[in-house]
Design a protein that fits this description.
This protein is of the alpha/beta class. 29% of the residues lie in helices and 28% in strands. The strands form five sheets. It has an eight-stranded mixed beta sheet. Strands 1, 2, 3, 4, 5 and 6 form a six-stranded mixed beta sheet that branches. The two termini are 24 Å apart.
Length: 476
């Protein structure tokens, strides 16, 4: 069985909004006598939209009407009707995610096609999505190395560190191409972000509103921004401003990072010479990109060319692959279906230690799913063991129970996804640790990754198994 789906991806960032239409080729790779295993065998980008500045109203709310008009205009240019779109994703990132009406905009846009994956991404989740879009996780796996991707947009630089295909850490700095804005006609500086203004003052750099911008005048402050990026990956020791420039946190820097890739709008100016006026976009993006291209970041690290730069955050959309859970599962309530739950996938090293190590890893990584200190609903995914001993099950159960303490304070059920066949005993042990007072859904035989979302349907086959839809943001 083979079929095609038309998929849309919409990304609203701090500076820009864009849209990509893709044709996904879905095929059942299982034999006639097996449970269907639907996978994406090919992806073809059929339309890349214009890129518009994210419209913001005077009261600092997103202009919903203008966003809708932009999307409709792009559908028209692509020659498609919204009824033809079968799946999709709307991702809202950066400063835009902090706008008062962000959720209203997301729900409005998801109505353009049926069952959208909708995500408000905080700095950590944005780092993961952008890095996967740039192909950093694939590069680290294929080359058996560690690589950091820096996604440099208008307001922030999002870092994600991968090793051997596994996500190890994330970070984010308030460094971006639109933190200093320049009138392209008069060349007057029209905006300086508070942290950049503070950095200039601390370094004794003259930088004021209304000042005439030239590459020479801006070179010192851009140089300081680049030094902070070099510090973020361990090429320089952190200086007195490093903690100030962090959006939420930096990378742990407990290992050497040999490789680097860049994505985001500024990345185009790193990998290639942009012709024309350096202030043509009304900001310092081109100058920042050129400075990075001449920095220690490119001189001391192996630079990988990403699959995507400005479109890395989402170049495709949610594709649905339906799977069936294993039959050795635990669920304690019937409030199915459960929809659009983001996945937190633990790395192998997180599972290799004792219960305390596991708990610490979970607690730390739950921060990826916080926006303005509010923790989203999350499903924890792990490999587990194919033939676990009693002590193994106890380790996993106690580690999960302790590490998910903050998540357990919420009303929704505890959701755990195990690759190996141990969900029933693990789920029952967790349920007992929770005093039989917290609903638990623990399923196995499902493979998911960071950046995925899942839907869990109502029990089938006499309640023995659960249908699971894994929604993967499709990247080049």
């Amino acid at each position: 069985m083979s079929e095609q789906l038309l998929s849309v991806g919409i990304d609203m960032g701090t500076s820009t909004t864009q849209l990509v239409l893709s044709k996904l080729h879905i095929q059942n790779l299982a034999s006639s006598f097996s449970v269907p295993r639907l996978v994406i065998t090919d992806k073809e980008v059929v339309y890349r939209s214009d890129i518009c500045f994210t419209p913001v109203l005077a009261d600092n709310r997103i202009d919903v009407k203008q966003i809708q008009e932009f999307v409709q205009e792009q559908y028209s240019k692509a020659g498609i009707h919204k009824e033809e779109i079968q799946t999709g994703a709307v991702i809202i990132t950066g400063e835009t995610a902090r706008k008062e009406n962000a959720n209203e905009v997301l729900l409005s846009l998801s109505g353009f096609a049926g069952d959208f994956v909708v995500a408000t991404a905080g700095p950590d989740l944005e780092s993961i999505i952008a890095a996967k879009g740039a192909g950093a996780h694939t590069y680290s796996k294929e080359h058996s190395t560690s690589i950091v991707n820096i996604d440099i947009g208008g307001g922030t630089s999002n870092l994600a560190l991968f090793s051997g295909g596994e996500l190890l850490d994330t970070g984010c700095l308030d460094i971006g191409g639109r933190l200093i804005r320049v009138n392209p006609e008069t060349l007057e500086i029209t905006y300086i972000a508070p942290k950049i203004k503070s950095l200039a003052e601390r370094r004794g750099i003259q930088l004021t509103l209304g000042q005439r911008a030239t590459p020479t005048i801006l070179a010192p402050i851009i140089g300081e921004m680049v030094k902070l990026l070099e510090e973020s990956v361990g090429l320089r020791p952190p200086d007195d401003f490093y903690d100030t420039i962090l959006t939420n946190k930096g990378l742990k820097l407990d290992r050497n990072i040999p490789c680097i890739s860049f994505s985001g709008g500024v990345a185009d100016c790193i990998y290639q010479e942009v012709e024309g006026d350096v202030f043509q976009y009304g900001d310092i993006g081109i100058l920042l990109g050129r400075a990075i291209a001449d920095s220690l970041l490119t001189q001391r690290m192996t630079v990988a060319r990403p699959a995507e730069t400005i479109r890395a955050t989402v170049v495709g959309a949610g594709s649905h692959t339906t799977e069936i859970s294993g039959s050795t599962i635990t669920y304690t309530e019937e409030s199915f279906p459960i929809k659009n739950i983001p996945i937190l996938k633990l790395a192998a090293m997180d599972e290799s230690g004792n219960a305390e190590v596991l708990a610490q890893a979970i607690a730390a990584k739950l921060n990826w799913f916080k926006l303005n200190n509010d923790l989203q609903r999350v499903a924890i995914a792990l490999e587990g063991k194919s033939n676990p001993s009693f002590l193994d099950v106890q380790k996993y159960a106690h580690g999960l129970h302790q590490g998910m303490a903050e998540l357990l304070e919420r009303e929704y059920p505890l959701i755990v996804i195990v690759h190996h066949d141990m969900a029933k005993v693990l789920g029952q042990t967790l349920y007992a640790l929770l005093g039989y007072k917290k609903d638990v859904v623990c399923i196995d035989s499902i493979q998911v990754d960071n950046g995925d979302y899942i839907d869990i349907g109502k029990p089938i086959a006499g309640g023995k198994v659960l249908p699971v839809v894994v929604k993967t943001l499709v990247f080049n």
